[in-house]
Amino acid sequence: MAVKASSVDNRTRSTVSICIVIGMCCFFYILGAWQKSGFGKGDSIALEITKRTDCTILPNLSFDTHSKVDSSSSDLVLPVKKFKPCPDRYTDYTPCQDQNRAMKFPRENMNYRERHCPPQKEKLHCLIPPPKGYVAPFPWPKSRDYVPFANCPYKSLTVEKAIQNWVQYEGNVFRFPGGGTQFPQGADKYIDQLASVIPIANGTVRTALDTGCGVASLGAYLLKRNVLAMSFAPRDSHEAQVQFALERGVPAVIGVLGTIKLPYPSRAFDMAHCSRCLIPWGANDGMYMMEVDRVLRPGGYWVLSGPPINWKVNYKGWQRTKNDLEAEQNRIEEIADLLCWEKVSEKGEMAIWRKRVNTESCPSRQDESTVQMCESTNPDDVWYKKMKACVTPLPDVKDDSEVAGGAIKPFPDRLHAVPPRIANGFIPGVSSEAFQKDDKMWKKHVKAYSTVNKYLLNGRYRNIIDMNAGFGGFAAAIESPKSWVMNVVPTIAKMSTLGAVYERGLIGIYHDWCEAFSTYPRTYDLIHASGLFTLYKNKCSMEDIILEMDRILRPEGAVIIRDDVDVLIKVNSLAQGMRWNTKMVDHEDGPLMREKILYAVKQYWVGGNQTAVA
């Protein structure tokens, strides 16, 4: 009996020991997670959401095409509001460039082609329907040359621009031969001509601005040279030109040089380009050239091809008088001298100027009585600000060899280097160390994203938009020839970081997400938004922002939203009513972090057979 008793005691002690060990392991795991979370008290809300959502896996969310997913097991804790499709007539609706509204505004200086957004009571609260027959775009680089007809069913450009080789209609696709008004033989040969003067091959020129871009064939072929072009054109009689560009997988927005400043920071672009863009460069006291000067980096290049360049030889084909063309070119030359641009080439119908690297190297600028300097102390404060005929001052330099604002490394070295605006203290409160920490953090975030969405880095998502880009860390972490990112810095952001984004060799734009974005429906394959809804809390309707996300997202496109868990619960409820399949996932640092990630995939559907609402 004593032996049996001893055996029982030993088993009891062993059981107790095991329980103690397990208890200590659990305690130290929870303690470690608690300490890592940065909170001083237990996060009961996050724990509860984790329980409800089974955050570590996504068993019911598929990123494959034409997925038929039952989202009944989703993470809802709020009732779902179901959004109905809009009538089919809204299939290409651009709220802030609506043609009917545009005609109510003055035509002077293209005011009517600028952004004119609907008031709150006129905003649509329905889902913009894709056209019947809509299909996923071709993968890059095939998409550069071919666009499915059903996605953009407009043939007018195939007739209007037939001899200029813009676009051709062939069966059920549009084919883009790579031509343009100034390069009917193809953009490649035209870029070769540019590269004979401008250092494109070595990474010195990485960012370009193409004004009046047409179908953006220049931007499409510059991508072969590792140059990212921000192309823009108005929504006008050349129907769907920007829509074609985005369907091709080329960066572009609806825009125009009119009465308000361009939504880009100062000293942003390595090159600006106009090829028969129909912009009156000599008008309004040179205001448009001065705006190009503002966004052009010191040492950057401006290319003008077409009328009135070399008018003595070319005037017969332009159907304009010699006097008219001569006066226009003389005026452009005068403004270029005033801006202290140096003409480095004029050959055929193309002229190229280079902006000086600083004011000290510009002798004529020393007498500022001859130049109207802009009074604004912040050259990046541009949202809905009136354009003026004045020259934007450059940062001071110590000698005439220093680049104003700081020299930038060639691409790709500049991608992860500390931007000069940060290194030189132009962004208050941001140190080089803070930037490097942010850059490292986004590499970590993207690594976690790619374990959930296996298509993120393989080229499935060509057109990507980051709605709250910060320093461009997300875009830098996924940078690849397979995709491009439109980095949006909200106008209400605490810091104006878009200049630093450009100094990394990335592109982007200022925007207020209380309004519609300057693009066509279905132009982005993936939308990323970090902290966006917290930023806009109490600023405007969450519903309006999510409906705008749905408008610009392609069917079967993906969404990644990072935000506070309470915010994501509300976002998820709205998203579920828009035919999105969703799943919430823990922060990569563990379930006790309040920040969560919501992944979503927009279901495939088209117009023509749904119950629509006005």
UniProtKB/TrEMBL annotation:
GO cellular component: endosome; Golgi membrane; trans-Golgi network
Regions annotated as coiled coil: none
GO MF terms, alphabetically ordered: methyltransferase activity
Annotated membrane topology: Single-pass type II membrane protein; Single-pass membrane protein
Broad class of the protein's primary localization: membrane
Gene3D superfamilies: Vaccinia Virus protein VP39
Subcellular location field: Endomembrane system; Golgi apparatus membrane; Membrane
EC number: 2.1.1.-
Protein name: Methyltransferase
Domain of life: Eukaryota
Species of origin: Panicum virgatum (Blackwell switchgrass)
Biological process terms in GO annotation: methylation
